[in-house]
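Thread: quick sanity check before group meeting

JM: Hey all, I'm pulling together slides for Thursday and realized we never actually wrote out the predicted structure for the chain we discussed last week. Dropping the sequence here so it's in one place. If anyone has concerns about the input, flag it before I start.
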Amino acid sequence: MRRAAVLAAAVGFAPFPSPTAPLSPEPPLMHGASASTEGVRHHVSASTRVDVSVDAQGRPFAVAATQRLDVRVAGDYFFTVRAPVTAVRAVPGSASEPGFRVGAIVWEGFDAGRRVLAARATLEPGAVGPSLPLRIVVSDGRTTLVNATRIDAAAGRATATPGSVRAYLAQLRTANAAGTEPAPGRAQVEATPVPVRLSVAAPLEVTGTVGGRRVSLLLTGRTTVPAAGRVHLRVTPVPPQVPARLPRDGAELFTLASRLSLETARARQFRELLGNPDPDGPSETTFVYRTQTPPTAAAPLVTRHHGRGLLTIALVAAALAAALCAAVVLWARS
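JM (edit): ok, ran it. Output follows.
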């Protein structure tokens, strides 16, 4: 009993990286959405579809987002969805028309108990590009799909008691499966964790076709499809799955839990591209990539003047001047 008490006193606690804190400034775009303090706390569920038009080389040249906000709780509302918007309009099913400001979609009105607000916004592709989860590279008859959510994040390395790590992973598994916000966690460790950097990415469910070839995979790094041609891909950031079989080693277990926590946070970022005015409300975002033909800029109208044409103009001008002089002389003599 005395030995167990000594061991417990020697063991400290160390937190895992937050499963909800953003790992980069964006996404959400321009710090996301917000609600004014109108005295009513609305419950809002947000779902967004992002249509990404890419050229034959896989480069995005146009981006549009359709967002639906399912608003509950009666009362006035004033929501601001910040994004690099160039145009916005309501879509079928919306209870009202959205407002448009520079860099924002604005919703204002009264909710009698439930109200659906839906808008399609045209976004500036250059500003949205860094927040798109998939990069497409076409070369030599092959198409490479790259998970573009990867980032280096701060974590710690330590040896933990397996039971405390498994308890955290169990609640993380439950929250990710239910789509709810996971709670932060910590583990008993033998010593203060050593700071490390982990390379993490949001897992991407990718389905569709590339050059007529079917694609269905969970993308965490990159993969090459032995085909080129038109792309039609549906990309959904998803939280990581906690494996059923866990390592027994306390150090490996602590690193695994840290990585899964960071991957959960990264997935949540890309599921909230436009944000949600309810900070506790669920958000989901699906990206659809399609090969399209970029619009061609109208060629400037150029008038070409050939040497002979210029000479003709000069001769005509001289003849007119001579005729004018002759007319003046005749008038003076009359």
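AS: nice. The chain has a mean pLDDT of 88. Residues 40 and 228 are 52 Å apart (CA to CA).
JM: adding both to the slides.
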